[in-house]
Amino acid sequence: MNQQGTPRGMVRAVDTTGTVEGYMPGFGNDFETEALPGALPQGMNSPQKCNYGLYGEQLSGTAFTAPSHQNERTWCYRIRPSVKHTHRFEKIELPYWKSAPNVLPDVISLGQYRWDPVARTDAALTWLTGMRTMTTAGDVNTQVGMASHIYLVTESMVDDYFFSADSEILIVPQEGRLRFCTELGIIDLEPKEIAIIPRGLVYRVELIEGPARGFVCENYGQKFELPGRGPIGANCMANRRDFKTPVAAFEDREVPSTVTVKWCGQFHRTRIGHSPLDVVAWHGNYAPVKYDLRTYCPVGAILFDHPDPSIFTVLTAPSGVPGTANIDFVLFRERWMVAENTFRPPWYHKNIMSELMGNIYGQYDAKPQGFVPGGMSLHNMMLPHGPDRNAFEGASNADLKPEKLDNTMSFMFETRFPQHLTEFAAKEAPLQDDYIDCWLGLEKKFDGTPGVK
Ligand SMILES: [Fe+2]
Description:
The protein is mainly beta. The protein is 3% helix and 38% strand. It has helices at 389-397, 423-428; strands at residues 23-25, 31-34, 55-60, 73-78, 90-92, 112-115, 131-139, 144-153, 160-164, 168-182, 185-189, 193-197, 203-219, 243-246, 257-263, 266-272, 279-284, 289-292, 313-321, 324-337, 354-362, 376-379, 403-415, 420-421. Strands 1, 7, 8, 10, 11, 12, 13, 14, 18 and 24 form a ten-stranded antiparallel sheet that branches. The longest helix is centred in the C-terminal third of the chain and has 9 residues, at 389-397. The radius of gyration is 23 Å and the shape is globular. It binds fe (ii) ion. Fe (ii) ion (FE2) binds next to loops. This is Homogentisate 1,2-dioxygenase. InterPro entries: HgmA_C, HgmA_N, Homogentis_dOase, RmlC-like_jellyroll, RmlC_Cupin_sf. Keywords: Dioxygenase, Iron, Metal-binding, Oxidoreductase, Phenylalanine catabolism, Tyrosine catabolism.
């Protein structure tokens, strides 16, 4: 029996031998899993009576009529149907968790911004009360755009459950370890891994090792998928087998419980008398997943020049305009730099897309100082950015031998929509007032005469 709450060894997905207990490999597979033998109907979805007295129920993550290659749904066989997992709702306030549109008259989002890490705290904060929205983009009501958040978690949710009808949630831990007990199974998550919780899936977040801090991208739009590799071929970048979806696990616990629902940017609470994590068996392709960022195989320039950062895309959430993402999740990890006669760091740049970065660990090559683990930066739509003076001078004068960028892991949430700062990001979070001064020292070298300066 694989019931939730059973301790089990931590999963180390970068182990180079063996498969990973408790998880099934693949991205978007049609999985099937049962926590009790014979619980999953075979050959049909809706038998007249299900084994063990379970109720059959479908969770639709896409419209019924979505194209076959995008259609996602999961069949659940559960102790009670979901209609028993909510009752009357009351609205509640989670004042730090904002949704788009959240455009504030006294906040200037136009600019280049950088933040130090949001400080750890001894205050009691759960996954819900510890969520701090930094930016919002698009409109949650029309299911376009995103929000970026920092989470600070010091406490487990106890008999308290959550789902977001607004969004799928991409989690990027930076410190501490969390356990996501979901309707479809358990994901243990630690820094250097990411997880995706689908829209509508009920879960509870427990603190395994704290305090926990990390980044969240809330995707209001079409689901994340793997980017096409084009001429790169069938391998490298993020490989499907390295994504791990949990096996079925259920709770049969009758105790007063609450379920919080995020719906159209507002939070609602309902009270029930049992755990809603009661799915004994399931099959389908709409499921939570985790991925170890250390399995990301970067591909880059091997002779000269610096490719666009899209070469490091891990996941992309389409917007409906081909090639123009609602969100790209991009990873800057350890890699070799070998380009000849080349300015190797990221070039200076203005972009129709807006770029929000976070540092998971180490030092980022375009900014040797100031962008620290746990910190974030925002280079909004059409705002210039690029290496600071030290990075520019260092890279312009470096002896260009092969060099390993080591001890570095940063990421970017890049969206086609401008990102608006929340009041928290503008006034409460540790904003670096002098960030834009990092370009002050860049000198005019041009004097009208030819030659390398
Ligand atoms: Fe950029």
